[in-house]
Amino acid sequence: MLKLRNLLLNTFLPAVCVLGIAYNCLIAINGEEGIRARALVNERLQEKQAELEELRLVRAQLENRADLLSRQKLDPDALDEAARQMLGYAAPGEYALSRQEFERILREGSAARSK
Q1: SS3 at position 98
Q2: In the chain, how many domains are there?
Q3: S-S: 31 plus which of 2, 17, 27, 84, CB 3.0-4.6 Å?
């Protein structure tokens, strides 16, 4: 009886403790709130922050354009540009470009200059 008790205390109890510690370490690494899950959340957070920054830039551009066309600060050039774009008119000697086409030309020109 004493031998059985010594066997349980000296062998099985430490083995069960080691298994329990190993299981908890495994869960800490691979569990729902573990290290790997945290890394995935951080990666997704960085992607979303970059997307948010892009959206903030677009919003600032749209707000600037809206300010130019507002009644309080009506810019004649912006009004003229908007009217020509909507109606498709151009004065003699002018070329009518869509905004997307104009921005594409600007990007290509700046890319060519930076090379």
Answers
A1: coil
A2: 1
A3: 27
